[in-house]
Amino acid sequence: MRALAALSRFVGNTFALWILLFALLAFYQPAWFLPLAKWIVPLLGLIMFGMGLTLKTEDFREVARRPLRVLIGVLAQFLIMPGLAWLLCQVLRLPPEVAVGVILVGCCPGGTASNVMTWFARGDLALSVAITAVTTLLAPLVTPALIWLLASAWLPVQFGALFMSILQVVLLPIALGLIAQRLLGVRVRHLVEVLPLVSVVSIVIIVAAVVAASQAKIAESGLLIMAVVVLHNGLGLALGYLAGKLFGMPLAQRKTLSIEVGMQNSGLGAALASAHFSPLAAVPSALFSVWHNLSGSLLAALFRRMKDESDKPAD
Fold first, then answer.
1. With 82 labelled, which of 93, 183, 221, 259 sits at a CA distance of 20 to 30 A?
2. Domain boundaries 52-304, CATH class
3. What residue segments make up the domains of the chain, in order of their start?
4. What is the pLDDT of residues 169-197, one digit of tens each?
């Protein structure tokens, strides 16, 4: 078990490299990965089940202890990234399927990778986990509503179908994870130790399947989509940090807000796009998954060096 836990930590620490490696493999050898497409939704459910296993009462106490800070983070998450996505689609006049894919990933909640990056950046980890938990629990209502509001100009959006999908692949697995945590008690610790390995393998498979299914479209318009993804992510990271500064947050919380806003649950975006739109609409989520883990790692390394002696303990 110790060896498996050590392997899990190693794979978790090298997450971005595995994503990049298998995305490239899937692009050049799509036939190897096409059969994996049917596993996208179950694997996302497995990731959410893992999140349920790790959620603690303390995570929700953080909401009660610092409701304003959590509220600012949640609003920033659901306003900045969807707004940026819509603006980029308008300014760059993206094709409909690509536009919907960009908006879709922008409307997703934060992902658990943001918690890892926040920890590495010496940000406020408790606040990061609280924001991720709240945005994920709100996602079944907020994400379909935002997609319907912002993306309907490009393609028809079925609010009810999106709501049911997110309910099934997000809330239900999280609820099962919480139940399993309660039933297993302290024994769940052994499962939690290998969760990074499970999550990385699952996200790598999701990204590889999406890239393989859309290989021809990526070859045709991949540079444009990648440019949009880089802009979307970079502006989100910057505006998240500025939002924290605007509200007078200490440095650790500004780091947290930057990472929480800029890093999305791109696995959910890929699953929703594949199920409700088209393989091309899933490409922005797949490329976002590759890029935001690279940019997040680089930014976390930069943030880790930043110190502000004037920062006071979080209130």
1. 221
2. mainly alpha
3. 52-304
4. 888 888 888 888 888 777 777 777 777 77
